[in-house]
Design brief:
Elements (H helix, E strand, L loop, with lengths): L53 H6 L13 E5 L3 E4 L5 E11 L2 E8 L2 H6 L5
């Protein structure tokens, strides 16, 4: 949404586009039953051609510090770890082990609190 550098346009496999007409567009929370849509959360939202294999990430120094798209399976979900950061705030992290056809596993550290909560259902 927005214009120029503020424009958000993620790459997805959906043929639909959400437009915003300033002053006329309203986005509201759906108040109905959402259970029938929950299975959509497990479907990939990008074309498979854009995914990297775990072995490619493990072997490439060019991927360090960059975001990559993986299509992988959760092998295991580690325990939630809490610690006090250098600034005195409490932080939480969880290790999730992923694998695909190219590798037996890679550790993904999950720092986002919403994803940490969601990862409880990956066990």
């Amino acid at each position: 949404f927005g214009s120029g550098k503020d424009k958000f346009s993620p790459s997805t496999t959906s043929p639909f586009e959400l437009g915003n007409i300033e002053g006329k567009t309203a986005i509201a929370l759906h108040m109905g039953d959402t259970n029938r849509f929950e299975n959509l959360l497990s479907l990939p939202s990008k074309a498979s051609a854009g995914y990297l294999r775990i072995s490619d990430v493990q072997q490439s120094q060019h991927q360090v510090g960059k975001f990559v798209d993986l299509c992988a399976v959760v092998r295991s979900v580690g325990p939630l770890k809490s610690f006090v950061a250098g600034d005195g705030s409490e932080r939480r992290v969880r290790d999730v082990k992923l694998f695909d056809v190219s590798s037996t596993g890679i550790i993904m550290k999950v720092w986002d609190l919403n994803l940490i909560d969601l990862s409880n259902s990956w066990i």
